[in-house]
C-alpha cells in the first residue's frame, strides 16, 4: 500500500515484505530514505536530520545550510550542489545544463497506466501507482516519477516521463529509469555477463570507491551484459542477506551504474545508455523512459529469484502463454544447417514424432535462395528449389505426420543479395556515404523508418496468415554499427538507437496482437536479447547458441537467476558438440535441457535404435515432469563441491524433480548427499526406488549422490508426494 504523510512529507511504499521511503522537505526537494525489509507504520522523519557526513550536519529546513551532495537524492539532478552522478541531464536552448526540478504535486491511484510505445509489466489486481510531479520553473518543464507497487509480488516498477511545457526545444542527454541510494558501500555488485555462446555468467565483485558501469552499446541488450544489476551484502548467500536489484524492461542499449562516492554512499541506477543517446524534446511533447523493475530480497538470492519468476510469469509474459506448458520441439538448425532437403526433413519429422516430439521447427535456409549467410534476408518467400511444391505442401505433410509446425525468420535484417535490397537499398541502417560493415554477411533494416515498420508488419502478417504456423522463432544476428538512418533529420540521428527500439516494439506489438495463437520464440544469436522487453511480446527465448550441456550449466544458472525457466529454451544436441567439440552422455544432455523448454537440435532420424529408445524414454520422462519444471517453483541446491557440480530442484503440489550434474570425476571422493529445500516437512515423498521419506528428512539428510568414475555424470530424481501423509 502507498501512503503519504503531509506533516512530514514522507511517502511509504509498503509491499508484503518490503518498504520504500521517500521524503520531500519544505524546499520541495525529494530525498531517498530507505529501501529494504518491511517496516510497520513508522514515519522515519529523523533520518535526514541525523545524516552526518564529514562532520557536517544537514539542516534540511534551511536551504542555505545544506548541500544536496550530503543527502540521499531520490532522482538526482545535474549542476546543483550535488556533484555526484546525476540520474538525468538536459541541455536547454541557451546551452546550459543545470536543472532544478522540485515537487509540486502527487497522486496515488489503483492499478497501473501502460507506457506509451514501450513494454512494461501488466497491472495486477493489487497494484497501486504513485505519480510524483516535479517542475523546473526556469525552463518550464514537468517531470513525472512513476512508482507502481505490486503488493503481493512485493516488487516496485519505476519509470519517468518528461514533458516540455515551454516554448523551446530541450535536449535530453540522459534520463535514467531508476536511481536508488544506499548509505554504505560494504556491498558486492552482481551482474550477468559473457559473450555470444557464453551468456549470463554470474559475476560478483566487491565494491570499492569507483564508478562501475554495466552496459550495452551494441544496439541490443546484448550477449555481453544483461540489463540487470544487484547490490548485495558481502555475506549474502543463496538464503541469507539483503539483495537490491534492478532489471530494465528494454531490449536496446542500456547502462546500469553503481557509483561509490567519497563518503561511501552508493548510487545505483539503470536506464537507456546515455553515451549513445540524445533526444530533442519539442515544446508540448513528452518523453517516456523504459520501465525498471526493482526487486529487494531480505533472504538472499533464492528469494530474489522467486520474486522475479513470479512477477514475470504473472505480469510480463503474454498472458495466453504464461501458464501454458510448452511443446517439445525438434529444430532443423544443428541437424541440417542450410542443407534443407524436403524428404530428409520429413524423415526427421517422422522419426521425431515416433519418439514423442510435438513441434517441428524449420530453421534458417527455407526462403529466397539462401544456402549460406550471404543472401536472401528480407525475401520471405519460399525457396522452390528446396520445396518444389511450396511451403503449404510441406507444412501439410508435417501436420499429417502429427506435428505442429514452426518457422524461423530474421525480420530486422537485409542481405545485399536480396530482392528487398535491390528495391530498397536505402532501408539499411547506415550513414550515407560511409562504408557499412557486414556482420554475418548482412545489414540491419532501419526500423526507425515507419515505412520499413509498415512493410515488415505487412510482410509478416501475410506470411503468418498464408501458412498454417504454430510457432515462430524471431532471430536477430548482428550488432548495429555505423548507426544512422536515411529517414531521420540530422538533429534526430542521435535518437537512432531508441527510435529503432520504438519501431521494433511497434512491429512486435502489431504482429503478436494479430496472431495471438502463435507461440513466438525470441532469439538473437541465442541470448543476445534475453531481456524483459522482448519477454513482454514473446513468451520464450533461445537461451544460447551453445548447446553443450556443461557450458549450459553456467548460462542457465545465470539466466534463471531472474528469468522464469518457462521462458528459457534448452535443447539436447549432437556430440561432439558443434560449438566446443565436447562429448557428454545423452543422459546429461537431457537432464540439463530439462531445466527449461525442452527440445532437440539434432538429426533424430540418423540414430541407431538403442539411442532412439533412450531419447524416447527421455521425452516420456520430460512429459511426466514438464508441468513441474515449467509451472512449479525453482530452487538452486547447494552441492558438495560447487566448482565441480550443479544441482537444482523444481517442486509443485504433486512432485519434486531434482537434477544433479557433476563436471569432473575426482579420485578418492567419499560419497556425498544432496540436501533438498522447499519441501513440506511433514509430507511423505516416494523415491524412484519406492522408498518413502518425510520432507524434513530429505531437507536434513538429503539424497545420496552416486560416486562414479565418470566425467559429465548426472542424476535426476522424481519424488512423488503422497496424498495423505
Ligand atoms: C542463430 C540462432 O541462435 C540459431 O539457433 C539459428 O537459428 C541460426 N541463427 C540460424 O541462422
From TrEMBL:
Active-site positions, per UniProt? 475, 545
The alphabetized list of GO BP terms reads: carbohydrate catabolic process
According to the entry, every stretch annotated as the Glycosyl hydrolase family 36 C-terminal domain falls at 647-719
Q: Does the keyword Hydrolase apply?
A: yes
Provide the alphabetized UniProt keywords: Glycosidase, Hydrolase
Kind of enzyme, top EC level?
hydrolase
Q: What EC number(s) has UniProt assigned to this enzyme?
A: 3.2.1.22
- Provide the residue positions that the database annotates as binding substrate: 196, 363-364, 440, 473-477, 523, 545
Q: Which family does it belong to?
A: Belongs to the glycosyl hydrolase 36 family.
Stated name of the protein:
Alpha-galactosidase
Amino acid at each position: 500500500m502507498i501512503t503519504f504523510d503531509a506533516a512530514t512529507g514522507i511517502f511509504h511504499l509498503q509491499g508484503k515484505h518490503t518498504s520504500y521511503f521517500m521524503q520531500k522537505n519544505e524546499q520541495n526537494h525529494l530525498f531517498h530514505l530507505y529501501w529494504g525489509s518491511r517496516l510497520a507504520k513508522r514515519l522515519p522523519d529523523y533520518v535526514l536530520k541525523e545524516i552526518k557526513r564529514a562532520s557536517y550536519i544537514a539542516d534540511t529546513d534551511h536551504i542555505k545550510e545544506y548541500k544536496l551532495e550530503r543527502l540521499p537524492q531520490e532522482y538526482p539532478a545535474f549542476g546543483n550542489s550535488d556533484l555526484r552522478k546525476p540520474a538525468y541531464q538536459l541541455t536547454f536552448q541557451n546551452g546550459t545544463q543545470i536543472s532544478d526540478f522540485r515537487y509540486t504535486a502527487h497522486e496515488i491511484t489503483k492499478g497501473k497506466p501502460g507506457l506509451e510505445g514501450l513494454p512494461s509489466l501488466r497491472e495486477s489486481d493489487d497494484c497501486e501507482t504513485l505519480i510524483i510531479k516535479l517542475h523546473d520553473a526556469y525552463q518550464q518543464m514537468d517531470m513525472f516519477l512513476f512508482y507502481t507497487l505490486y503488493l503481493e509480488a512485493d516488487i516496485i516498477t519505476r519509470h519517468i516521463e518528461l514533458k516540455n511545457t515551454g516554448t523551446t526545444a530541450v535536449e535530453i542527454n540522459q534520463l535514467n529509469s531508476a536511481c536508488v541510494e544506499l548509505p554504505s558501500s560494504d556491498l558486492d555488485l552482481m551482474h550477468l555477463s559473457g559473450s555470444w555462446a557464453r551468456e549470463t555468467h554470474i559475476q560478483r565483485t566487491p565494491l570499492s570507491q569507483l564508478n562501475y558501469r554495466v552496459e550495452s552499446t551494441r544496439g541490443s541488450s546484448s550477449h555481453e551484459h544483461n540489463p540487470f544489476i544487484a547490490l548485495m551484502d558481502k555475506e549474502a548467500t543463496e538464503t541469507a542477506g539483503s539483495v537490491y536489484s534492478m532489471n530494465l524492461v528494454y531490449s536496446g542499449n542500456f547502462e546500469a551504474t553503481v557509483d561509490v562516492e567519497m563518503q561511501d554512499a552508493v548510487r545505483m541506477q539503470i536506464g537507456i545508455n546515455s553515451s549513445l543517446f540524445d533526444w530533442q524534446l519539442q515544446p508540448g511533447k513528452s518523453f517516456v523512459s523504459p520501465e525498471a523493475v526493482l526487486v529487494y530480497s531480505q533472504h538472499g538470492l533464492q528469494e530474489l529469484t522467486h520474486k522475479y519468476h513470479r512477477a514475470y510469469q504473472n505480469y510480463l509474459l503474454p498472458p495466453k502463454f504464461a501458464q501454458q506448458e510448452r511443446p517439445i520441439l525438434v529444430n532443423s538448425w544443428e541437424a541440417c544447417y542450410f542443407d534443407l532437403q524436403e524428404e530428409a526433413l520429413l524423415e526427421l519429422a517422422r522419426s521425431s514424432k515416433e519418439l514423442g516430439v510435438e513441434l517441428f521447427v524449420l530453421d534458417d535456409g527455407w526462403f529466397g535462395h539462401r544456402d549460406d549467410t550471404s543472401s536472401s534476408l528480407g525475401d520471405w518467400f519460399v525457396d522452390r528449389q528446396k520445396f518444389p511444391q511450396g511451403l503449404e505442401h510441406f507444412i501439410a505433410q508435417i501436420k499429417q505426420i502429427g506435428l505442429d509446425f514452426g518457422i524461423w525468420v530474421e525480420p530486422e535484417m537485409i542481405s545485399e543479395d536480396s530482392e528487398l535490397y535491390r528495391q530498397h537499398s536505402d532501408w539499411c541502417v547506415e550513414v550515407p556515404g560511409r562504408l557499412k560493415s557486414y556482420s554475418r554477411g548482412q545489414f540491419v533494416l532501419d526500423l526507425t523508418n515507419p515505412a520499413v515498420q509498415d512493410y515488415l508488419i505487412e510482410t509478416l502478417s501475410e506470411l503468418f496468415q498464408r501458412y498454417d504456423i504454430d510457432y515462430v522463432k524471431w532471430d536477430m544476428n548482428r550488432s548495429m554499427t555505423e548507426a544512422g538512418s536515411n529517414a531521420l533529420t540530422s538533429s534526430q540521428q542521435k535518437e537512432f538507437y531508441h527510435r529503432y527500439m520504438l519501431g521494433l516494439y511497434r512491429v512486435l506489438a502489431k504482429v503478436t496482437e494479430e496472431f495471438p495463437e502463435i507461440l513466438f520464440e525470441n532469439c538473437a544469436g541465442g541470448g543476445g536479447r534475453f531481456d524483459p522487453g522482448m519477454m513482454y511480446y514473446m513468451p520464450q527465448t533461445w537461451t544460447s547458441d551453445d548447446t553443450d550441456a556443461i557450458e549450459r550449466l553456467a548460462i542457465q544458472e545465470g539466466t534463471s537467476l531472474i528469468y522464469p525457466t518457462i521462458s528459457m529454451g534448452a535443447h539436447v544436441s549432437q556430440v561432439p558438440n558443434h560449438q566446443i567439440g565436447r562429448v557428454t552422455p545423452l543422459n546429461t544432455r537431457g537432464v540439463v535441457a530439462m531445466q527449461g523448454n525442452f527440445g532437440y537440435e539434432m538429426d533424430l532420424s540418423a540414430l541407431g535404435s538403442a539411442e532412439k529408445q533412450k531419447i524416447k524414454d527421455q521425452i516420456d520422462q520430460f512429459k511426466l515432469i514438464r508441468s513441474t519444471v515449467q509451472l512449479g517453483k525453482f530452487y538452486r541446491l547447494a552441492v558438495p563441491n560447487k566448482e565441480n557440480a550443479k544441482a537444482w530442484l523444481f517442486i509443485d503440489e504433486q512432485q519434486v524433480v531434482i537434477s544433479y550434474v557433476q563436471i569432473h570425476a575426482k579420485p578418492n571422493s567419499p560419497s556425498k548427499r544432496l540436501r533438498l529445500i522447499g519441501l513440506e516437512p511433514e509430507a511423505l515423498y516416494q523415491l524412484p526406488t519406492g522408498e518413502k521419506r518425510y520432507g524434513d528428512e530429505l531437507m536434513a539428510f538429503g539424497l545420496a549422490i552416486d560416486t562414479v568414475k565418470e566425467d559429465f555424470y548426472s542424476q535426476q530424481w522424481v519424488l512423488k508426494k503422497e496424498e495423505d501423509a
